[in-house]
Write a structure and sequence with these properties.
CATH superfamily: Glycoside hydrolase/deacetylase
Shape: globular
Order of helices and strands: EHHEHHEHEHEEEHEEHEHHEHEH
CATH architecture: Alpha-Beta Barrel
Helix content: 40-55%
Mean pLDDT: 95
Structural class: alpha/beta
Number of strands: 12
Number of domains: 1
Radius of gyration: 20 Å
Distance between the termini: 53 Å
């Protein structure tokens, strides 16, 4: 799709086989890792929430593997390293189904809420868990809770990652650059996350109004229609213990059927999309937008008045 074809995207990427857009259905398989992060001293006593979270590996993942086999689709599953260690049978089911596994922290820790040293420790521990089980190092990363820190890019480059899918800065892939190297960014957005639509759980410290699946999929479908019209990338962020439940998965499968019927859609894993992005870049067929990180250090100097007084103090009065 060329820039003069009516698209609102200023730098549209050519998709394989002249597809109108690319779709990657991705899943964050958090299991009960985040329950322990949010409730480190009492998760053992939150039995109802344990069952809520363990629906992930025990019920939803086998269900998804079966449903996706019927659809003939392979998708991307982001998994914390602790969950890989705790639920190896679920990981094996995903791998046997031909799905891509990517890393999602170790215990769903939020990198931008811990020290730089701790961030690197948990990243490397997650990589070790991933490598020990799969026999391969992870190529893809999504920061837990999208909590990408100013140190994350450097660490991911140093550890050999190929792509990230934590950021929200475009409608097509772009490149995020650090002096140590760069990654392909495969962006998403909160509009494509199931969490704001469905999650009500006090132990997870989220009490969102629960939407009907039809309402959530109305949002997902609108975003897809726009991606199809303008040549964009559609990346869902769904959770098996959320969208893998019966009514919600029914609606998600209906949405995928709508996409299939519309035609001109490239369904791919994020790893496949990253490989395609690299290919068209290397061939000179497309030049991505590049952003360098970190953007700045806080507090920014403009918070200090030119007469030397602290503008933050003046503003708070």
């Amino acid at each position: 799709m060329s820039a003069d074809s009516g698209t609102l995207i200023g730098n549209p990427i050519p998709w394989p086989n002249d597809a109108r857009c690319a779709v990657a259905v991705t899943w964050d398989v958090d299991c009960d890792s985040s329950l322990n992060i949010y409730n480190p001293n009492k998760a053992d006593n939150l039995v109802a929430s344990q069952s809520f979270a363990r629906y992930d590996p025990l019920i939803a993942v086998p269900r998804l593997v079966t449903a996706l086999r019927r659809l003939g689709m392979q998708q991307t599953f982001f998994v914390p390293g602790w969950c890989i260690e705790k639920y190896p049978a679920a990981m094996d089911l995903l791998m046997e189904g031909g799905h891509e596994l990517a890393l999602h922290g170790y215990l769903h820790e939020r990198p931008n809420e811990i020290s730089a040293d701790d961030e690197l420790y948990w990243l490397q521990r997650g990589i070790a868990a991933f490598t020990n089980h799969t026999g391969q190092r992870p190529r893809g990363w999504r920061a837990p809770s999208f909590a990408f820190s100013k140190h994350s890019l450097a660490y991911l480059v140093e550890e050999g990652f190929v792509y990230d899918s934590s950021l929200m800065g475009d409608d097509v892939p772009y490149v995020i650059k650090h002096k140590a190297g760069s990654l392909i960014e495969l962006p998403t957005d909160w509009t494509l996350d199931d969490w704001p639509h469905y999650v009500f759980n006090r132990d997870f410290k989220f009490t969102m109004p629960i939407s009907a699946p039809s309402k959530a999929c109305e949002v997902f479908r609108a975003e897809f229609d726009a991606a199809w019209r303008h040549g964009g990338l559609w990346v869902s962020v769904w959770h098996p213990f959320v969208s893998g439940r019966l009514a919600r998965l029914d609606a998600a499968i209906d949405l995928l059927g709508y996409m299939l019927a519309k035609g001109g859609v490239w369904f791919a894993t994020l790893g496949e999309i990253a490989d395609h992005v690299r290919k068209v870049m290397d061939e000179g067929a497309w030049k991505p937008r590049v952003e360098s990180y970190p953007l700045y250090n806080s507090p920014i100097p403009e918070l200090t008045r030119i007469d030397g007084k602290d503008a933050r103090r003046a503003r708070s009065r």
